[in-house]
Design the sequence.
């Protein structure tokens, strides 16, 4: 269990691949993206090791992330990707469903939701969401071709060729992750809204809910789309205080260890200079 989110199997995020040239297609205007003049949209699901576990691309830059998800195999054939209790998390761009737990949207003119439990869920899932943004930055850092694709999109065949190249970069990215290739830290800042996060120090089996917990049950027949998100929210409300106490205890232990290490270094220096003076 990563980030205290039991049964969460990935983080979903959208990213854009800028195109160097205007597409020569009838729908060229649709390639105007949110940030670039011409681009392709890509939807990515990554895991805690920053591997890309699923993705879909080929949509023009104006395509909304949620629309892509609704039409994707991840949604249409969800039973092939999820067990009855697994889910992924994402930002407010996505609709809640039995397998997708997005952040809560804030009320108009406010930075955060009014409900404290909703704010708590947003806070907890913000860390893995930032990790997914790091994945996009690392991916494009390893393969700068993705930052400005020089291929011309003229028809379905040329678009398919671009998508094949993108697929190759996904395979190589995961290959490098598996074999411990060191990425450059600055790659992570390629995407917007990034901040550093650390891997959780606790054992993945700590604080796992029992199998009787609602998080280990399938979505009841006729349940609303928000059911899964509501169960995650309730779980966090019940356990967050425990998580905070454990996190603070780990930080205190780390501070004590650091103090002991510094004290040992200081003592070693004193002994060294004492020996020099005696000689």
Sequence:
């Amino acid at each position: 269990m990563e980030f205290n989110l039991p049964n969460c199997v990935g983080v979903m995020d959208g990213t854009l691949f800028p195109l160097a040239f205007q597409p020569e297609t009838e729908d060229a205007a649709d390639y105007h993206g949110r940030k670039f003049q011409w681009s392709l949209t890509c939807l990515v699901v990554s895991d805690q090791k920053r591997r890309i576990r699923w993705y879909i691309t080929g949509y023009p830059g104006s395509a909304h992330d949620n629309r892509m998800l609704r039409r994707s195999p991840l949604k249409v054939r969800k039973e092939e990707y999820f067990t009855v209790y697994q889910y992924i998390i994402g930002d407010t761009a996505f609709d809640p469903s039995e397998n997708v737990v997005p952040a809560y949207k804030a009320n108009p003119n406010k930075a955060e939701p009014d409900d404290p439990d909703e704010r708590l869920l947003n806070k907890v899932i913000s860390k893995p969401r930032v990790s997914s943004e790091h994945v996009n930055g690392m991916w494009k850092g390893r393969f700068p071709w993705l930052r400005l694709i020089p291929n011309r999109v003229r028809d379905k065949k040329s678009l398919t060729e671009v998508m094949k190249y993108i697929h190759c970069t996904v395979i190589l990215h995961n290959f490098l992750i598996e074999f411990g290739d060191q990425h450059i830290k600055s790659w992570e800042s390629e995407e917007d809204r990034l901040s550093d996060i650390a891997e959780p120090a606790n054992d993945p089996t700590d604080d796992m809910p029992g199998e009787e917990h609602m998080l280990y049950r399938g979505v009841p027949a006729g349940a609303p789309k928000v059911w899964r998100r509501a169960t995650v929210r309730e779980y966090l409300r019940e356990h967050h205080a425990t998580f905070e106490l454990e996190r603070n205890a780990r930080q205190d232990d780390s501070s004590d260890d650091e103090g002991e290490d510094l004290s040992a270094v200081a003592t070693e220096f004193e002994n060294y200079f004492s020996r020099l003076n005696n000689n």
Summary: Helices lie at 65-71, 73-76, 116-142, 156-178, 227-278.
